[in-house]
Amino acid sequence: MKVLVLFSFYLSLESFYGSVLTSSLHYESIFNFGDSLSDTGNFLLSGALAFPVIAKLPYGETFFRHATGRCSDGRLVVDFIAEAYGLPHLPPYLALTKGKNFQHGVNFAVAGATALDSEFFSQRHLGAILWTNNSLSVQLGWFKKLKSSLCTTKQECDNYFKKSLFIVGEIGGNDYNYPFFVGGSIKQLRNSVPLVVGAITKATSALIEEGAVELLVPGNLPIGCSSVYLTLFKSPNKSDYDQRNGCLKAHNAFSKYHNNQLKKGLQTLRQKYPHANIIYADYYHAAMPFFHSPKRYGFYSGTLRACCGGGGPYNFNNSARCGHIGSKACQNPSSYANWDGIHLTEAAYRVIAMGLVKGPYASPPLKSVPLSLV
């Protein structure tokens, strides 16, 4: 009799903990907002450019074996996060058709997107150089439009979204890239940081109001280690570079400034929405280890020089960018951290994703990961 009671008790415990693992410790869908660091095809589908280079090889060559609209040789951070939770890669919003199952999530990110609306840049005579007008607020509008297809009643939405992860970014990098690339100074750009951070926290707040409770908000990468920045802002002064990594100190300090302001903004949101789990994704420090020790992460060809480009010290040539005439892709992208001078390789994105899902670069931590990243 005792054996039967103990066995029944064991089964009930197993059932209880099994349900906890599948409900509270696992994401069942992901909704992603952002720019080219996480776009899985929206920019391509938007028709913003007639012949975008990301529509053809070598983009996508490593994992998909064909171009998918991702600005890399393969998978992105959002792809690795989805895989870690046993979810399919997110379909781009602009590819959705009636009757298609998108219950496991949707990607709203668009390459070239900004946190601030396009009008902000038009007023500053920068509108002509924007890749897209599909800013963060536009992407938020897409989500609101789609929401009625995901759930109808408040109870149904609450039950659905409490098992969903909302990724708000990375976004904001292009708000700085556009003016930086046409001669804007760090001092000038610092003044726009509160506006950019405000747009990100406003969108995060809006998603919480729509029912989101699990939100991951990434900061900016160390732009001073990016091939495009190293090329455009090349300096004859050795003191402008950090000796350990060869990155531009002032531009990395700018990234840190943005990230610190974003963390403060998220802390304010946590106080306003104590029921929500607002997670800061530290892209900066998740990436820095492979700049410190490239070979430890398999980057035997380096981290500052792009795999695909048209020559120059960092293999970034604005007149022969990756995919354009005069450019060439390396034979082994996984030995590089930088893909095309602006974006990273699949191998680098995998390192960042591992730092988020396994720790310690998500604060507070993401839910337990049932699967390993491969």
From TrEMBL:
GO molecular function, one term: hydrolase activity, acting on ester bonds
Sorted UniProt keywords: Glycoprotein, Hydrolase, Signal
Signal sequence region: 1-22
Superkingdom, taxonomy of origin: Eukaryota
Pfam families: Lipase_GDSL
Similarity comment: Belongs to the 'GDSL' lipolytic enzyme family.
Name of the protein in its database record: Lipase_GDSL domain-containing protein
Species whose genome carries this gene: Cephalotus follicularis (Albany pitcher plant)
